[in-house]
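FORM 7B: Structural annotation worksheet

SECTION A. Query
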Amino acid sequence: MKYDLIFIGYVNTFENLTKAGVKDCFFDKNNNLVFVVNNGDAGKAIGKFGSTIKRLNNLLKKNIKVIEYNEDVIQFIRNCLMPLKVQNITQENKLIKIESEDKKLKGLIFGRDRANLKELNEIVKRFFDVEVVVI
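SECTION B. Predicted structure
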């Protein structure tokens, strides 16, 4: 992945302020600045009661989202969907199935015109060779 000077500046500012290691940085469909941090660094990045993230929001003048990386694709998807609580996620070869009985939760995962699901697929494909499907 190649970064321009703007993203390098965002990553440096984030790492200096939070002391959390950044694995990736990008903008999502809502123009939020998304940082994928190393496993175990999400707490450092967010800070007590979200104080560090709030300070970064004001400093960078961007809405910031933090996702904790995990080697396990299922746990990584759970981290991407946070704060939504999904009942069951299963993997069959390169196909990931997210199962939920709650129609409201399913609607939040899908999003309007499946936009949230498409974005989740893009984020997961940056790190893993899989396809995400919701049932």
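SECTION C. Observations
The chain has two domains: 5-68, 73-134. The chain has six helices and six strands.

SECTION D. Sign-off
Analyst initials: ____
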